[in-house]
UniProtKB/TrEMBL annotation:
<feature type="coiled-coil region">
    <location>
        <begin position="19"/>
        <end position="49"/>
    </location>
</feature>
<feature type="domain" description="NERD">
    <location>
        <begin position="56"/>
        <end position="176"/>
    </location>
</feature>
<dbReference type="Pfam" id="PF08378">
    <property type="entry name" value="NERD"/>
</dbReference>
<keyword id="KW-0175">Coiled coil</keyword>
<dbReference type="InterPro" id="IPR002121">
    <property type="entry name" value="HRDC_dom"/>
</dbReference>
<dbReference type="InterPro" id="IPR044876">
    <property type="entry name" value="HRDC_dom_sf"/>
</dbReference>
<dbReference type="GO" id="GO:0003676">
    <property type="term" value="F:nucleic acid binding"/>
</dbReference>
<dbReference type="GO" id="GO:0000166">
    <property type="term" value="F:nucleotide binding"/>
</dbReference>
<protein>
    <submittedName>
        <fullName>Aldolase</fullName>
    </submittedName>
</protein>
<dbReference type="InterPro" id="IPR011528">
    <property type="entry name" value="NERD"/>
</dbReference>
<dbReference type="Pfam" id="PF00570">
    <property type="entry name" value="HRDC"/>
</dbReference>
<feature type="domain" description="HRDC">
    <location>
        <begin position="295"/>
        <end position="368"/>
    </location>
</feature>
<dbReference type="InterPro" id="IPR010997">
    <property type="entry name" value="HRDC-like_sf"/>
</dbReference>
Amino acid sequence: MSIFDKLLNKRTITSPIFLKEFEDNNKQLQDLNDLLEKVSSDKKNLINRDIFFIKQELYGEKNVYNELKNSFIPMLAIHDIRLEFNDYVAQYDFILITAKSIFVLKTKQLNGDIEITEDGDFIRIIKNKEGKFLRKQGMYNPISANEREVHILEEILNREKLLNSITVKPIVVISNPKAIINKSKCPENIKSNLYKYDQISTLIKKILDDSKYAKELSEKTMHEIANYLINNNKEENIDYRSRYSLDKVETKNEDLDKVSNLQINNVEKHVDLNEKEIELSEDNNDFKQNEKSSNNEHSEVYELLRQYRWNKSKEEGFKPYMVFNNEELNALIEAKPKSKEELLKIKGFGPKKVEKYGDAILGILNSR
């Protein structure tokens, strides 16, 4: 290689560069706290619970962010990206773009003792305050969800001709320093994709050092990938009136529109109610009850749809809101479509989603 070529290919990315930074006090918390001031009913409990969940998730993500920021790894980093591809939606906590590989990090604020079986099942060990064993409880598998989201990212980047044979590596990061994870019996694909946050820098450096791929991304392509992801970030707006079943009686401010227009970007990422039902213990009974539809006439169908959503998410290995989110669930209850043609008219239900879930949804809606 000539001196000119060496100068032309000189690397200027020598440390982590965050092109979309982590935000400690983001708009999500600001909007929920703002809403909390306007609600006078028992819905305050639901909002406070959501605020707690978001703070827990942000605390964990901050641990990961600090570790990455101080890693000295030459990379472009992006925090909190939501992409839409055909009828699919994928949420990414961190995407790290290096010359040799792209890393997709899903952070999990797991609590307590977690055991992973030979079959890859995640089991939470429930103990009392004295540390005495009470029972075991199955929980959501974050590995499968992250692998699915990596597949979507690969499809997107290949379509845009940006991947250039570079591998995309999924990693689930346990962001709670107190969590105890027993991986001694788990399958190798889980063991190699699940790490505590304080191990992540060492892991990435090792993967890059051991990389057998001679081909590297140019810095120009690295920036093109990062810019594409940021420019195509689809922020999701949630209608609080639907989410909390708010009405004028329940608010101090008579202008309900002001409440319903307080929307938050990407709440589903931090507050997936079905997943939290698994992750928390007995103290969730009131929360689950309050999440039910306030309309008694529809409550049974509402719960059947929620149960179907949860079962499908476990079966397919991703979060329940990716089947359909709470706003779409409420739209189903309100519209009660009789056919796939009517189902296609509901926002969020494209041809692929209707083809995949339509028969089951219509069966539930029209069974009562």
